[in-house]
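Hi both,

Apologies for the delay on this - the queue was longer than expected. I finally got the pyridoxal-5'-phosphate-bound model through. Below you'll find the protein sequence and the ligand SMILES exactly as submitted, and right after that the structure tokens for the full complex including the ligand.
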Amino acid sequence: MSEAHNIIPDWEPTPNNLESFWMGFTPNRAFKRRPRLIARAKDMHYYAVDGRPIIDGSAGLWCSNAGHCRSKIVEAIQAQAAELDFAPTFQFGHPKVFELASRLTMLAPGDINYAFFSNSGSEAADSALKIALAYHNVKGQASRTRLIGRERGYHGVNFGGISVGGISPNRKLFGALLAGVDHLPHTYNRAEQAYSRGEPEWGGHLADELERMVALHDASTIACVIVEPMAGSTGVLAPPKGYLKRLREICDKHGILLIFDEVITGFGRLGSAFAAERYGVVPDMITFAKGITSGAVPLGGVLVRDHIYEAFMNGPDHAIELFHGYTYTGHPIAAAAALATLEVYREEGLFERAASLEDTWADAIHSLKGEPNVVDIRTIGLVGAIDLEPIEGAPGKRGYEAMETGFHDHDIMVRITADTIALSPPLIISEDQIGEIVDKVRKVLHQVA
Ligand SMILES: Cc1ncc(COP(=O)(O)O)c(C=O)c1O
């Protein structure tokens, strides 16, 4: 044995010991008592460690839009790992990240012609917020520092993201967060919107709350507004009709940057490359992650309009324009995975497929109305949410049981937020598989009643 081996401590890891991994966003003790372990995946299915196929009702974590272990993506990753494992993108570059940036900007609407890369949606959100602040600085408006998010919004878990985010448990244990943040009201009202398909009729006027904030804080202090076009993690809230257009108008009127966080809605989830296209609204920045590689390799980023990039292109030629970036920004393996994923989306017409399945999907999910404890259902694109009546005194327990029962007894993976079941299958789903998912969820609802 060489000397180098001696520095490895002499211990035997226990392969089946689940204790050491501290799982995020998971009740660790409950999971470790009855784990849901996945061994492999292909197309629409996961396979549990006991070999059972589990139909993927959630595209993993809203990310595997092209399905799992697609050969084109797998081969691109393998080839890239063998050819160029890492190259810095500070002061150097490699061809694939440039190709990816130009392909992405071709997919994005309007004059969104530049791409900045991160490794996750959280980093994408924080990058966009930093770019917004820096933009106003370089434009000579340094007083514009206020960031406006929305109640029930989710922009990842970094400090910027949780500050503008509006999900209380994600914020409350983490101190004062960023100063100078305000939140628009969320757009959900069950009395007005229950069982909506697509964009609810009621609620467009809530965008006018931004005018109230401008009146309170003054536009000269506001840097940006960040919203998810469809709020995903909070339990699927489609934007009310007219809401996003109105936000755009108010932002334009007051020189406020508008950021769409499209980490979930990007790459076909709502039937177009980006939700911005579906809604005919060009934000100043779009954040993305997840579906860009169909989840195969971590990658995220921010797409920006010309005027933002151009505002930074000043000063001496040798001087750095933006003091921000990550070691793994534009990692070659992530870039290769993303290019292959975009090819799969294009060759198989998966964004169009999501659009063409929207009605079938909505009919199927809404057929669960009237099942035990169902109090609301919402659908949009290839996304659905089923709100369950909470068990008295134990909020979140019925949702947790639904997810657990789904995996162990009905061979389906669903995502839950408290007592809401969220469904967002890979875009390769067949009509039969839509039926299968709904049958399984129906059985789950009866079991947890
Ligand atoms: C809208 C949105 N933004 C940001 C994030 C954070 O992404 P990540 O978990 O990759 O950091 C998510 C994750 O679900 C998201 O839904």
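Main takeaway for now: The two ends are 60 Å apart (CA to CA).

I'll put the files on the shared drive as well.

H.
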